[in-house]
Amino acid sequence: MKRHLVTLAMIAATPASAQLVPSLPPRIGALPERLLNTVDGVVETAPKALETARLDRIAALLRSSGGRVVRDDRGDAARAGEVVLTDPNDAAIDALERDGFRTIERTEIEGLGVGYARLAIPAGIRLDHALARARLRSPIVTADVIHFRSGDLEAVSAAIATAGLVQSGPVVGMIDGGVSGGAVRQQGFATGAPRPSDHGSAIAWLIGRGAPGARVVAADVYGSDPAGGGAVAIARAIGWLARADVGIVSISLVGPPNPLLSRVIAAAQARGMTIVAAVGNDGPAAPPAYPASYPGVVAVTGVDARGRVLIEAGRASHLDYAAPGAGFAAPDAKGRMEVVRGTSFAAPLVAARLAAVGRGQVDGEAVAGRRYGRGLVCGRCVQRR
Question: What distance in Å separates the CA atoms of residue 234 and residue 31, rounded to the nearest whole number?
Answer without folding.
Answer: 33
